[in-house]
Write a structure and sequence with these properties.
single chain; 350 residues; alpha/beta; TIM Barrel; Type Iii Antifreeze Protein Isoform Hplc 12; 8-stranded parallel beta sheet; two-stranded antiparallel ribbon; 32% helix; elongated
């Protein structure tokens, strides 16, 4: 499966820098953040496409007030989204600039009107946010557009995940990526449960990845080792800029280090390969093999007293030791000679 020109099966981990609210209301900061994401090696920048009134109701009733120990307690949902949204009139410039500098860009739509609006930019993928996974009509409408669909599973039951996978397939979209996600901001590391990454891939027959809200870079690195094909992390140009998501976002230095460590982890993981490359063959020179450990005269019996398995590895493989013990030397053999079959009378006949 490809997102843009990136092949998730061949090109490693696809790293998404989530802009979210980290533009803090400034188009220039948004553009500068896209540039920074490209400079540090992110594969994509992701934005969010909603207005406060497409995602919630303008109400201060208790149902709509944020509480429960979040960074935004005391605000209404409407107030938060009014502060955090990315103006729709910016989108053309954001998409154009990202493509101009060569970084992929796509968005999370939060209702059908957002999907319709985004279609004009021909995004390489769509992202369904954790809290929207239960909006089956939004999932169906988005999946119908035929783009790879990335779905965070943070608040979903297994049945609901199965439902949205089936919905995508029912409309002919099999390019499904499910992200393990803990929908807390920030998320506690003990709630990460990264074992789920491989389980999600196996249980639902999809590509899996990780949308991270923990602090620091440990979780994305471990997720890579656990098989994540996508890493999504909130990215901020400079935390001093402020913004609704700054406390659980990585700045340019931190995000760059995360990318470096993810790429290093990919190299460490490597691949299943029992063949011997040049480096391994060179190292075998220092393995054990059979050597003459005492001078041996022609016709003398080879024994444990005059043949030994030692380093280096230029002689016969040690597995032949018992086969040649008791045989006669075909010629004079001097101390420290690498033993070969040419040195041994296999049938003990002159």
């Amino acid at each position: 499966m490809k997102i843009g020109n990136f092949d998730l099966n061949k090109d490693g981990v696809y790293i998404i820098a989530e802009l979210s609210a980290n533009h803090n209301g400034s188009l220039q900061i948004a553009l500068d953040t896209i540039k920074a994401a490209k400079e540090i090696g992110a594969n994509a920048i992701k934005i969010q496409t909603y207005r406060a009134d497409t995602i919630t109701l303008n109400s201060n009733k208790d149902d709509f007030m944020i509480k429960g120990g979040t960074l935004w307690d005391g605000k209404s949902l409407y107030e938060l989204y009014e502060e955090a949204y990315t103006p729709w009139e910016w989108h053309e410039k954001l998409f154009s600039y990202a493509r101009e500098i060569g970084i992929d860009i796509f968005s999370s739509p939060f209702d059908k009107s957002a999907v319709d609006f985004l279609e004009q930019f021909n995004p390489s993928a769509y992202k369904i946010a954790s809290f929207e996974i239960t909006d089956y009509e939004l999932v169906r409408y988005t999946a119908k557009k035929g783009k790879p669909i990335i779905i965070s599973t943070g608040i979903a039951t297994k049945d609901e995940i199965n439902d949205v996978v089936n919905i995508c397939k029912e409309v002919g979209n099999n390019d499904i990526i499910l992200l393990k996600c803990t929908s807390a901001y920030p998320a506690a590391i003990e709630d990460s449960n990264l074992k789920m990454i491989s389980s999600i891939a196996n249980d639902f027959g999809v590509i899996s990845g990780f949308s991270d809200h923990t602090l620091g870079i440990a979780a994305p690195i471990i997720a890579t080792a656990m098989g994540a094909k996508i890493i999504e992390k909130h990215f901020i140009l400079d935390k001093s800029v402020g913004g609704a998501d700054k406390d659980f976002s990585l700045d340019k230095i931190e995000f760059s280090l995360m990318i470096q460590e993810v790429r290093k982890t990919e190299k460490i993981i490597g691949k299943v390969d029992y063949s011997l490359n040049k480096k391994k063959l060179k190292s075998r020179e220092y393995s054990r093999s059979l050597y003459v450990c005492k001078d041996i005269k022609k016709g003398e019996i080879l024994s444990h007293d005059n043949i030994k398995s030692v380093r280096p590895g230029y002689g016969l493989h040690p597995k032949y030791l018992n086969e040649i013990i008791g045989k006669k030397a075909k010629k004079d053999l001097e101390f420290a000679k690498a033993l070969s079959f040419d040195d041994v009378l296999i049938d003990n006949k002159d």
